[in-house]
Design goal:
Elements (H helix, E strand, L loop, with lengths): L2 H6 L22 H9 L2 E3 L12 H4 L7 H11 L14 E3 L1 H14 L4 E8 L7 E11 L4 E5 L5 H7 L13 E3 H9 L8 E3 L2 E2 L1 H15 L22 H14 L6 H10 L9
Length: 278
């Protein structure tokens, strides 16, 4: 296994199960079965009503849990059964697309499979719109390539969205990594106002996802609303070197297989892109 695959096959600060690692021991290894397990543990806050669940406000705060270790602790507090047993809807961990992606990434890494959470935009949620979204990307050894999988999309969501593809193999033109979205907006190939979520959209939103995706490729998987460094502030307040760095990062990460060493050097060499300790 080369250095890049070894890096993504090991847990990071956010994806380590910590003292709950034993919970992963009896999980299946087939990707579809793993996604089914994750879907039986988590409930997306924005989809709750579709499942007939009304969430108390206190439960919605579960989506703020960053590390998988914390997610697992909360899961056990809600229901102590093995992870292979799907929870009733009202005892699933309330989360979002990032939570589903990071949980699957954590399990795959525990099994020694190179995996990484990717931040970008899905084209399959609303017509003519690029929805803020996260998916998991794992190394498929038999085919020798990275494969995008959306562990959030279960049978109900697939039916509602009328997906024309298998969520276990998301096409690259259906989910755009943030760097590709940035390039499209910068080159006039797409309207920045079509990228975002709810009433939040524009080039500033794409910028935030570029930074989050670079951080995630360095195993620092932050929440979709975490703001630091170059994410903060208005587009017009960015320095010339910030624009240059964003273009450079987009060029690196828009590729199907971002150059590992270059992405690592970029993150290490740009202080305003690094996640502070606090």
């Amino acid at each position: 296994m080369d250095d890049s695959l070894a890096f993504y096959a090991a847990p990071g600060r956010m994806t380590s199960p910590g003292p709950y690692a034993a919970l992963f021991e009896d999980l299946p290894r087939e990707i579809g079965a793993l996604c089914h397990v994750v879907q039986g543990l988590m409930l997306h806050a924005f989809w709750a009503e579709r499942y007939g669940v009304t969430l108390p406000q206190a439960r919605e705060e579960e989506a703020w849990i960053r590390p998988v270790e914390g997610q697992l602790a909360r899961l056990l507090a809600l229901d102590p059964r093995p992870l292979t047993e799907a929870r009733p809807l009202d005892r699933r961990l309330v989360s979002n697309c990032r939570g589903f992606s990071v949980m699957l990434t954590s399990i795959l890494r525990h099994q020694g499979v190179p995996a990484r959470a990717r931040c970008g935009f899905g084209r399959y949620f609303l017509p003519n719109h690029f929805e803020d979204h996260w998916v998991c990307e794992y190394w498929d050894a038999p085919s020798g390539q990275w494969v995008l999988v959306d562990s959030q999309i279960d049978a109900l969501q697939r039916e509602v969205l009328h997906l024309p593809f298998d969520p276990l193999h998301v096409p690259r033109d259906a989910f755009l990594v943030a760097g590709q979205a940035w390039q499209m907006c910068r080159m006039g190939q797409a309207d920045p106002e079509t990228f975002g979520i709810m009433d939040m959209h524009g080039l500033w939103f794409v910028r935030g996802n570029v930074v989050r995706d670079v951080a995630s490729l360095n195993k620092v998987e932050m929440l979709p609303w975490d703001v630091w460094g170059v994410i903060a502030g208005r587009d017009e307040d960015l320095a010339a070197e910030d624009w240059a760095a964003l273009d450079e990062a987009a060029a690196l990460t828009a590729q199907d297989n971002p150059p590992f060493s270059a992405v690592r050097r970029f993150y290490a060499g740009h202080a305003r892109w690094q996640m502070p300790e606090a």
